[in-house]
Amino acid sequence: MTTTLKKRNVPYLALGGLWEEDDVQAAHRVSAAAAGPDGNFFPLPEESDFQKALAAHEGSGFAVAVNSCGTALDLCMIALGIEKGDEVIVPGLTFVCTAGTAAARGAKVVFADVDPDTLCLDPKAVEAKITPRTKAIIPVHFGGHAADVEAFDAISRQHGIPIIYDAAHAVGTKFRGKNVGGAGLASCYSFQSNKNMTTLGEGGAVTSDDAEFSEKVRGLKTFGYVYGAKLRVTQIGYNYRMTKPQAATGITQLAKIDRVIAARLKNFCLMAENLRGVEGITLPAGLDENHGCHLFVIRIDFQGLGTTRADFVKKLKDDWQVGTALHYPAVWNWDAFENLDYDKSATPVTHEACDRVLSLPLFPSTTPEDVEYIGDALRETLASFQASSQ
Ligand SMILES: Cc1ncc(COP(=O)(O)O)c(C=O)c1O
Question: From the CA of 194, how far away is ligand 1's center (Å)?
């Protein structure tokens, strides 16, 4: 097979959404105002406006803006009082900090397996790992596909264990038509540069329907302050605040997030259509209006092809200038986990998925010609490895 398409460069971009003139102006406006008389960077009103807009968009009662998803997760662990002796159940197929946040509190990290279709934490596998020491479960809405919120609600009710969602990929993600921001006890969002929306490159939020938990997180993110007629400090807290220019851009970014996700969904569906039926490629599941469309993760049995993922990625890049990304190596493979207390037993789906995943470069700006080219490049690369393995 030889592609008739002219060679193009399709890199894996480090900006997942759209950064446009209104976003630039939002940051500029608050920065310029700070240079005027009485100027300052005090977060109001942008912070509260952004929080209200985020809660409204994600379907939660409350939203607390912070400076990253990592800190959002940390604050939830602190608010829950997670400590040594506790166990926290997480997937192994995720970014390191989903597990790291529990490890940082001294808890034992318990990895449960993921669902072979969605690659989200499998509720049945989680149930098998619950012990009297389990103090929290952190499912990830992997790539923008919602975890099984209904099943996790049932587990939470039955065992009295709080569910904290890692919603780093999940702005706009829905579970059966409903945005996931109010699911579980809380959800932790990321607005880091490569996510579908960003607040000047870094940022995050905790959303929740629980007023008391939200207030605890809000206090913890800002030194434990409780504002009122008299300033009080009711808990020992931190400074995990989002800055004023970040919050200002959060408002403009949220205003366009539905457009960003619609453009991504269109490209995801085109790519899936292009690759449907290609032997050796497993496509992402559930590409519909519920999907947040953050990552387009395919799976390839590189070992069965007689190669490694690194060599496949290199050939795709060298021959076709198609960039890819890896989401993710198994968390337990990071050096930092070597001396930590963790359990990775009974996770065969995770092991296999971590060996096979590869993310394709699909963004709002990707054109139909790019999609066709990526498909051709992938087929050519697959075919060349298939030929040499015979
Ligand atoms: C699943 C997941 N959780 C958490 C994070 C951390 O987000 P942040 O960089 O905002 O701390 C990321 C970032 O890539 C992520 O992919």
Answer: 10
Nearest atom, ligand 1, residue 328 CA: 16
**Per-residue confidence band for 5, with pLDDT thresholds at 50, 70 and 90:** low
Architecture of domain 21-253: 3-Layer(aba) Sandwich (3.40)
At residue 7 the predicted structure's pLDDT band, cuts being 50, 70 and 90, is: confident
Q: What is the DSSP string of 53-98?
A: HHHHHHT-SEEEEES-HHHHHHHHHHHTT--TT-EEEEESSS-HHH
Average pLDDT for residues 284-297, to the nearest whole number? Answer: 98
Beta bridge partners of residue 204, listed in sequence order: 66, 190
Cα–ligand 1 centroid distance for 226 (angstroms): 28
Token pair of 349 as six digits: 């789906």
Distance in Å, CA 367 to ligand 1 centroid: 27
CATH, domain 258-389, list 1.20.1260.110, 3.30.450.30, 3.90.1150.10, 3.20.20.70: 3.90.1150.10
pTM for the full predicted model:
0.97
Query: Does residue 195 have an active-site annotation?
Result: yes
Residues with CB under 6 A from ligand 1: 68-70, 94-95, 97-98, 140, 166, 168-169, 190, 192, 204
Per-residue confidence (pLDDT) for residue 388, from 0 to 100: 85
Q: Which of 108, 135, 195, 244 is catalytic?
A: 195
